[in-house]
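Protocol step 4 of 6: structure prediction from sequence.
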Amino acid sequence: MADKKPALYLAQYETPGACLHAAEKLRDAGYKNFDAHTPFPVHGMDAAMGMGDSKLGWIVLPAGITGCALAFTMMYWMNAVDYPIVIGGKPPGAIPSMIPIMFELTVLLSCLTTVFGMFGLNKIPRHHHPIFNSDRFAAATDDKFFISVEVEDPKFHLERTKKVLEGTHPTFIELVEDDADELGDDDKEAA
């Protein structure tokens, strides 16, 4: 059976304001890989955590342009080049007749890219995260506010990170350990 390794520090706060100020202190201390867990959106939390604008728009824009261009190319080829027929007095390849399909394909590719881009940027699905090893964390969807600082953060150090978190005046600080290796060993023993 493998030893458990530290995965993150979890600090609990009673109010959204305290959680917001804790995020600001962590950001100012240079931490990058931390997260806020709240039962409802807290206005200003993105700025307090030092988060920039989402990259999703820059991923979706080329997909939308591709959808529009693909629809136009497909319909122009079919109606004006491959099989030109005059229908209702419209010349082959008339753009007004293409607009609904161009719009629909733009929306379709944009929506699919949004969904899969969000999955990729948010790193989901992730079926287990060490934060779920904390019994206190269940209150994050009810009435408590949490800040978690991951071990992967370049500034993470057991003692220094704990002191920074203590300086934010949480009601509770917990070192959450990762038992993923242990689960893997149990699975191997069962097989």
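Step 5 (inspection) to follow. DSSP finds six helices and four strands in the chain.
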